[in-house]
Amino acid sequence: MSFDHFYYKGAQFAHTVHSESSLNYAENEFEVLDDDVFNVTYPKSGTNWMIEILNLIKHDGDPTTCQSILNFERSPWFEIEAFKEQEKQLSQPRIISSHLPHQLFAKSFFKSKAKIIYTMRNPKDVIVSFFYFTKIHYLFKEIENFQELIDNFVNGNGLYGSWFDHVKGWMQMKDDSRFFYITYEELLKDPRGGVVRLCKFLGKQLDDAQIDSVVKHSAFSTMKENKMSNWTQVPAEVLDQTKGSFLRKGISGDWKNHFTVAQSEYFDKIYQEKMKDLNMSFYWEQL
Ligand code: A3P
After folding, report:
1. 46 in the Ramachandran plot: left (φ > 0), alpha (ψ -120 to 50) or beta?
2. Residue bearing the CA closest to ligand 1, atom 2
3. Ligand 1 centroid, distance to 221 Cα (angstroms)
4. Max CA separation in the chain (angstroms)
5. pLDDT, position 144
6. Which one, out of 13, 52, 154, 184, has a CA that is 20 to 30 A from the CA of 206?
């Protein structure tokens, strides 16, 4: 894909954000604590939304932390170069983000009692969200040709490797008691229900008002107004916000405005082929 990339154990990563050393640290050296909570996604699947939800749950619905600490510092990605510095600021239980595929995840996690929340999104909407992200983020050369983006996506030619491998890799943990998965579309349809399920998984007992507060302060409209969550504090040389917002639309099904019928059929065929061995259905397939 059109960024300055390198391969680490078969997946693509970006120079300046990642390095062999940061990936090796994440995989082999990082010490997972038993109360760590990992927010894992393939990029553009709702990572920042889940950062907000998890931080609000951690603070019993109180938005003060979300309004005073930048989201990518509250819940940094542990595979990136900057993490070793950010790590020192984290309070327990740490909420740590990651886009790593399952096979490159921290080895110490698998011996711990830590928990993973894995959020997935309709891959067609992931493609659309990514299309607009390439227009504003310095890492990417703007992609004009939407078909080229679809082809790159289905061929696994992008940051963090193939979406299909990512989902299939993580779904190996679907019956593990330390693993919780949810889709972006379920969260959109019933955010409160999602928060209640997350609280149960995390062993957090929030009352109704606290749950309402989590939902309210993690809503797209609230996050868009919160400068600690909307990425407006990212320097202009990293994110050119004259060309678009990080919090763009926050809806499901925007792919219908971007895929032609032929592109949608082409994608669906590949999707069915690649996903058939998983024997699972996902909420976005019903929409
Ligand atoms: P769109 O570009 O489709 O609007 P990530 O955080 O993994 O990079 O994902 C970014 C996508 O999640 C963007 O999608 C963004 O708008 C959406 N998003 C972020 N916060 C959201 C929220 N509170 N509700 C719904 N969507 C949200």
Report:
1. left
2. 129
3. 11
4. 50
5. 80
6. 184
Per domain, the residue ranges of the chain are: 2-121+159-238
Q: Binning pLDDT at 50, 70 and 90, where does residue 22 land? A: very high
DSSP helix/strand/coil, 135: helix
What atom of ligand 1 comes closest to residue 51's alpha carbon? 6
Check if 248 has its Cβ closer than 6 Å to any atom of ligand 1: yes
Mean pLDDT of 90-108: 98
Tokens read off for 286? 């019903």
Any ligand 1 atom below 6 A from CB of 146: no
Q: How far, in Å, from the CA of 111 to the mean position of ligand 1?
A: 32
Query: Which residues form the catalytic set?
Result: 99
How many angstroms separate the CA atoms of 51 and 48, rounded? 5
Residue nearest to atom 18 of ligand 1 (CA): 250
Closest residue by CA, ligand 1 atom 23: 220
Q: Is residue 265's pLDDT more than 60?
A: yes
Tell me the residue type at 11: A
Q: Tell the CATH superfamily of the 2-121+159-238 domain.
A: P-loop containing nucleotide triphosphate hydrolases (3.40.50.300)
- Distance separating alpha carbons of residues 78 and 25, to the nearest angstrom: 9
Q: Would you say residue 2 has pLDDT above 90?
A: no
Q: What is the pTM of this model?
A: 0.98
Going by alpha carbons, the residue nearest to atom 8 of ligand 1 is: 44
End-to-end C-alpha distance for the chain, whole angstroms: 30
